[in-house]
Amino acid sequence: MLDLILFAIPALFVLAGALIVIFAKNPVHNSMGLVLTLASLAVVYITLNATFVAMVQMLVYAGAVMTLFLFVIMMIGVDKAEQTKEEIKGQTFLVLGTLILLGSLLTYVVINSGFKWDLWFPAVEYSIEGTPDLIASTLFTGWVFPFEVISILLIVAATAAIALAYDTKTPRKDDD
Amino acid sequence: MIEVTTDWYLSLGALLFSIGFIGMMVRRNALIMFMCIELMLNAVNLTFITASKHFGTIDAQVAVFFVLVVAAAEVVVGLAIIVSIFKKQETASVDILRSSKG
To answer: Is residue A113 very low, low, confident or very high in pLDDT (cuts 50, 70, 90)?
Structure first.
């Protein structure tokens, strides 16, 4: 019973936050909905024994990424209404078709599995705890090459952000 | 007595991904579309961690870190692009933006 409560309440918050993200009109409300989703997902991660990932989720997503989002929302203004005129011809039908395609694909996968797939891939009896030392020992042994590649990606992203934000038009003031 | 199995977590991930996808298709504000991408990435992370629990391996949790880093890099570059477009065109609506057309 405790299992069910620990799953259901965070799951409800996850879905509620996700619905706020796509339905709210004010961008600040959207981002707060995203915070709700991310924080509740961290709780779900803890129930899945991934404690370190839950902590990183709170720090990186709910902390850093959301701060960035709110910063940009404040910068470009919150009071602009979203335009609803159709700019691309037949975009409503295109979107509807894509949604139906995704829905039928997911339904097919779920029905086809019949919720029996863990007969072929049974769950393990033991449970592992995602502690920092276990994750680090895996990351720095088997995953060293992806780790190095991802560091290059981060450097490129930081450089790109500087290059995009750098204003070459306005003359710089070189006094003092 | 209902037991919470792996299926429940996978269903939650699928629902979260679908909501993010619908938002991505329906909304036109570039910022909100970015948030929907975050929703989809988080659905994938949830699926990874569920797999990690189900199969008893730690590698899926390491993969989540790479998804996190890619998401952070994507947000940094994407928001910088949105801001620099906004400076020129005073809008963040993806339908009006024709400047990136080749």
So the answer is: confident
Cα of A174 vs its chain's centroid, Å: 42
pLDDT band at A159 (very low <50, low <70, confident <90, very high): very high
Q: Which residues in chain B touch residue A80, judged by CB atoms under 8 angstroms apart?
A: 91-92
C-beta atoms surrounding B57 within 10 Å: 14
Half-sphere exposure of B75 (CA within 13 A, CB side): 25
Write down the residue that tokens 């997902």 correspond to: A41
The tokens 């993969």 sit on which residue? B63
Q: Which of A11, A83, A95 sits opposite B12 (nearest CB)?
A: A11
pLDDT digits (tens, 9 = 90+) for A16-26: 999 999 988 88
What domains, with CATH codes, occur in chain B?
Answer: 6-89 (1.10.287.3510)
CB contact under 8 A, A138 and B59: yes
CATH architecture group of domain A1-78: Up-down Bundle (1.20)
Model's pTM, two decimal places? 0.87
> Is the complex ipTM more than 0.95?
no
